[in-house]
Known about the structure:
The chain is largely without helices or strands. 9% of the residues lie in helices and 0% in strands.
Amino acid sequence: MQLRGVRPFFSNKFDITKHKQYRLLSDFDDKNALDIEKYVKNLCRARVRDNDTVDEVEDAGVIEA
């Protein structure tokens, strides 16, 4: 789940600016923010090239035990 504009957690015990990976957060630089619309839009665009192997799968339906 992602809440826009809300930090993942808030704690007075740990200063996130001191973390070694802080430069990768959107708090450090706005260009690091995840554009969820762009990410979701590209999920369904499969790219199949000429040299890709594709296996066809048939729907077996419901298998009763």
